[in-house]
């Protein structure tokens, strides 16, 4: 999550092809973390609400993920694409804070 956050913030300052390639590599690190995150979160939830709790959380972040392209596209149409990426970075920052508050694995 931290690499994702840093790379989104870095997009604001990136100029040129090489910085964009480096940021793309950092951003792509997020792609492989879903299974690990889902397993950890499912195990961290209390047993009596594991299935429904994970279902609720997963549905929530899928909805946020589905709305993100629309929001960024709307901001881009207004000439505010950099601000859109900062909005994504802020969302990733909130996610980072939440991850840091998760209990340790048992």
Task: Describe this protein's structure.
The protein is mainly α. Helices cover 79% and strands 0% of the residues. It is built from five helices and no strands. The protein has helices at residues 2-13, 17-28, 34-44, 50-77, 81-101. Helix 1 runs antiparallel to helix 2, helix 1 (2-13) runs antiparallel to helix 5 and helix 3 crosses helix 4 (50-77). 6% of the residues are buried.
Question: How would you summarize what this structure contains?
Answer:
The protein is an all-alpha fold and 106 residues long. The protein has helices at 2-13, 17-28, 34-44, 50-77, 81-101. The protein has 5 helices and no strands.
Structural features:
106 residues; mainly alpha
Query: How many helix segments?
Result: 5
| Rg for CA atoms | 16 Å
Largest sheet: none
The tally of strands reads: 0
pLDDT average, as an integer? 85
Share of residues in helices? over 70%
H/E element sequence: HHHHH
Q: Regions with pLDDT < 50 over 5+ consecutive residues?
A: none
The chain-level structural class is: mainly alpha
Distance between the termini: 21 Å
Q: Kindly estimate the percentage of residues that lie in beta strands according to DSSP.
A: under 5%
Shape: globular
């Amino acid at each position: 999550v931290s690499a994702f956050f840093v790379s989104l913030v870095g997009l604001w300052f990136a100029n040129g092809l090489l910085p964009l390639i480096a940021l793309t590599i950092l951003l792509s690190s997020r792609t492989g973390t879903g299974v690990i995150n889902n397993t950890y979160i499912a195990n961290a939830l209390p047993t009596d609400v594991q299935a429904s709790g994970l279902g609720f959380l997963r549905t929530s972040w899928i909805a946020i993920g589905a709305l993100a392209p629309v929001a960024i596209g709307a901001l881009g149409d207004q000439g505010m694409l950099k601000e859109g990426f900062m909005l994504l970075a802020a969302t990733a920052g909130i996610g980072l804070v939440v991850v840091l508050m998760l209990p340790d694995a048992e």
